[in-house]
Specification:
Elements (H helix, E strand, L loop, with lengths): L2 H23 L4 E3 L2 E22 L5 E4 L5 E3 L4 E7 L4 H18 L4 H4 L4 H20 L3 H18 L5 H22 L2 E6 L4 E4 L11 H4 L4 H5 L1 H7 L6 E18 H4 L7 E6 L5 E11 L2 E8 L11 E17 L4 E3 L2 E7 L5 E5 L2 E4 L3 E4 L12 E2 L5 E3 L2 H14 L1
Parallel strand pairs: 15-18
Antiparallel strand pairs: 1-19, 2-8, 2-12, 3-5, 4-7, 5-6, 7-8, 8-11, 9-10, 9-12, 10-11, 12-17, 13-14, 14-15, 14-19, 16-17
Helix pairs in contact: 2-6, 4-5, 5-6
Length: 407
């Protein structure tokens, strides 16, 4: 390489280096003015409240459900039976456990979850059948003990092989047979339990079933809603309450959100809401009670959402609408001569003040109206798309001072 070429390359390199240093040291960082579209939303977590009617038994005894959890029932239809009378307590407990296990298996989503991909369930089944073997051996009912022992051996073999329909059915047959045997030993009186209202039947309760009176909902405070978590943790089952009927049409979300978010909505307003990332549905703001930095809100929904009757807590997103305009970083916004605007820089590094009309603001940025026409008497031009906005706060403050001095 010749000496002259080397000198030229050296000069180019030095110029590039100086340019880079100059750029990095420059206080005039800029961001091109661009059109953005935003959606204003409120997000949070809350409690799902429904009109729920308790299903009670007026006699002491073992409750046996006749329908699965999640089944729609009509008012007055049978949901279970209660076996009462002078019952053997140990047999009554065992019957209750077996009935619960049978319902669990019947409600299982898939056979694979029950066996092939769930060793814990297989182990639980093996323990139950082992207990039956011991019981019938102790009672010298060796024929029944041998039957259960064969079933246990079959389960052990299936534990190390692919789960199948047969394994599920074998266990159900076994449990149904044991249930029948205990029922025969218990004897007692059978009383039918009927649904007190129409809706979705569930045997699971949590203590929040009586919180959906609309008069009470209107007065819920931040403290009230925050106390729901404690109610869930402290709930103790009532022996006389065997289930509930849930209304799957009208339901509510009770939540505590920042007061700044709550100020964007008001009671009676129609909104769109999504629960646990489901599709947005229409809902109504039922009540808003602000207290200091927080607010208690109640959202009313009159539309069935799949699985909503099974939820007690959920995440939600409220969509309030949106806007489109020019994005402005928060540090760039200034007020000069009582005019709101930003500084921009052209290709020659000359700076100018541009007025803006803010249509949306947040902590980190603003949205300004596009194609804004400045009011009469304004000496500044409006900000246009693709102009370079100064974003360095210190530089902007210096420009404020210099501009004021020059005027």
């Amino acid at each position: 390489m010749s000496k002259s070429i080397r000198n030229i390359l050296l000069v180019v390199l030095l110029l590039a280096l100086l340019s880079t240093v100059s750029y990095c040291a420059s206080p005039y960082d800029t961001e091109s003015a661009q059109i953005v579209e935003i959606k204003d939303t409120i997000t949070g977590s809350g409690f799902i409240l429904r009109r729920e009617t308790l299903v009670e038994k007026n006699i002491t005894g073992v409750f046996e459900p006749l329908v699965k959890d999640g089944t729609r029932v009509g008012k007055g239809s049978g949901v279970g039976t209660v076996i009462s009378g002078n019952l053997d307590k140990k047999l009554a407990v065992k019957l209750s456990e077996i009935t619960e296990r049978i319902e669990e298996i019947k409600n299982s989503d898939s056979i694979a979850n029950l066996y092939a991909s769930d060793d814990a369930r297989i182990y639980s089944a093996m323990k139950e059948i082992s207990a039956s073997v011991r019981k019938f051996s102790y009672d010298e009912n060796f024929l029944r003990a041998a039957e259960y022992k064969n079933q246990l051996n079959a389960l052990i073999e299936k534990k190390y092989s692919q789960g199948s329909l047969d394994s599920r059915d074998d266990l159900l047959v076994s449990l149904e047979a044991e249930k029948y045997s205990i029922e025969q030993q218990l004897g007692g009186i059978r009383s039918e339990i009927v649904a007190p209202a129409a809706g979705i039947f569930y045997t699971t309760l949590d203590g929040l079933e009586s919180l959906c009176d609309e008069e009470t909902l209107l007065s819920y405070t931040v403290e009230d809603i925050n106390s729901f978590s404690k109610t869930l943790k402290a709930y103790e089952e009532d022996d006389l309450v065997v289930g509930k009927i849930s209304d799957n049409y009208t339901w509510y979300i009770a939540a505590v959100i920042p007061a700044t978010d709550a100020s964007k909505i008001e009671a009676g307003e129609s909104i769109s809401i999504s629960v646990d990332d489901s599709q947005f549905i229409k809902a109504t703001v039922f009540s808003v009670n602000a207290e200091g930095e927080d607010a208690a809100i109640i959202i009313k929904c009159n539309r069935n959402v799949e699985g909503i009757t099974e939820k007690r807590t959920a995440d939600f997103e409220i969509e309030l609408g949106g806007c489109s305009g020019i994005y402005i970083p928060a540090p760039s916004l200034r007020v000069l001569d009582n005019i709101t605007g930003v500084y921009v820089m052209d290709a020659n590094n000359s700076t100018y003040f541009r007025c803006v009309d803010i249509i949306y603001e947040s902590k980190d940025y603003y949205i300004a109206r596009n194609k804004y026409t400045p009011p009469d008497g304004c000496n500044y031009k409006a900000l246009k798309v693709h102009e370079d906005i100064l974003v360095n706060p210190e530089a902007v403050r210096n420009l404020d001072e210099n501009t004021k001095e020059s005027k």
